[in-house]
Amino acid sequence: MRMYDIIHKKRDGRVLSPQEIQFWIEGVVNGTVPDYQSSALLMAIYYQGMTDDEAGELTVAMANSGEQVDLSAIDGIKVDKHSTGGVGDKTTMIIAPMAAACGVSIAKMSGRGLGHTGGTIDKLESIPGFKTDLSREQFIENVKRIGAAVVSQSGNLCPADKKLYALRDVTATVESIPLIAASVMSKKIASGADRILLDVKKGSGAFVKTAEQAEKLASIMKSIGEKAGRKTEAMITDMDNPLGYCIGNALEIIEVCETLQGKGPKDLTDLCVELAAHMIYLGERASSLEEGREKAKSSITNGSAFAKLKEIVSAQGGDVSYIEDNSLFPLSAIHYEMKSIQSGEIQSIDAEACGIAAMTLGAGRETKTSEIDYGAGIILCRKKGEHVEAGEVLAKFYSESKEKCLAAEKILQQAFKIKIN
Fewer CB within 10 Å of terminal CB in the chain, N or C? Predict the structure, then answer.
């Protein structure tokens, strides 16, 4: 079997056999398949697609490429959640404490930034001292003791996906439904949770743009999960506009803290209540989704969710003083205000452009070796549906250089669609 022939076959739109997929994934892990051949095959898959069976075989091959996590030492139902990514999507850091405060065990493995979207691990690592590379024993112990832990994908968990994830990020092959489905579900299956909640984003700031694509992705991932014996639910949520006001690592942690204290943006709070309600219901800590919603809301109003966030941060080595006093976060040195060039009502804010602007400021990775500036990012000062006057501030930028701010401004000005009065 040769990679050349496998690439040629998929390039021409033919179906790969389970043996060919297994050969590729084994070669990715043991290094016999070079990056340039994997990149070529990824691009062929991007253009030609995969059947549901191919996507399922790819998922199984990646899930079996490394260790499988055994969570049986944790009593009760373990629930995991995954978002397909979006701009300003900091929901994991909000709903994990909410659900854990309601008695659900959350054993969460998350990723770093992919494309223009920020990764949960990058955001958490903006908290000084926060460790995402816990040992398997410490990970399980934290879940048993406080109800939740969020860690990075270990080197031995789905190593094939880890390599392909980085390649997709820099070869413009992120937005492929079968590749997204296989990547997400291989990690979820290998991570050992009993039940899985999928937050499938659609819109300009998501990897899938249309409702039809989102429904297809949700259907494939749910089917893969159920076949693997994991009860799986999927929600399709909007990502045409950025979620919340903050885009960037430390900035998003600040917004997480505000939301868990009942002071967060309505769009972010409402979504997190709905996601947490599903997790609470999946974890059998509520007899209905409506009861789950009430419990989720109560975890914010009674302070238990914010207290749980501090427990999680402390248990993973983070400096809790930054959670208690967000002014301690060191934001990037250059502060820049982008002002509106016209008056009117904001019709929409293109989420993808916001993500690219934030990446330009230093908050994301342009290549897999790029260094992230944790203090860089954007605070939106106006949202969809609001009125703005010419000269008023639309957004605040944080970056290490004025040049990056000016470059980001060119991108973000185009993101605001304003109806002139």
Answer: C
DSSP, res 370: P
Angle subtended by helix axes 91-101 and 266-282, to nearest 10: 50
Q: Catalytic site residue 35? A: no
Q: Which of 78, 82, 295, 308 is catalytic?
A: 82
Active-site pick, 78, 81, 187, 188: 187
Catalytic residue among 78, 168, 202, 295: 168
Annotation says 370 is catalytic: no
Contact yes or no for 204/242 (Cβ under 8 A): no
Q: What percent of the chain has pLDDT over 90?
A: 80
Q: In what order do the strands lie in the sheet with 78-83?
A: 148-152, 105-110, 78-83, 195-202, 231-238
pLDDT of res. 205: 78
Look at strands 334-339 and 246-247 and give their pairing.
unpaired
161 is catalytic: yes
Q: Quick check: 182 and 58 in contact, CB under 8 A?
A: yes
Residue 187 catalytic? yes
Identity of the amino acid at 145: R
pTM as predicted: 0.87
Per annotation, catalytic residue among 80, 161, 199, 350? 161
Q: How confident is the model at residue 175 (pLDDT cuts 50, 70, 90)?
A: confident
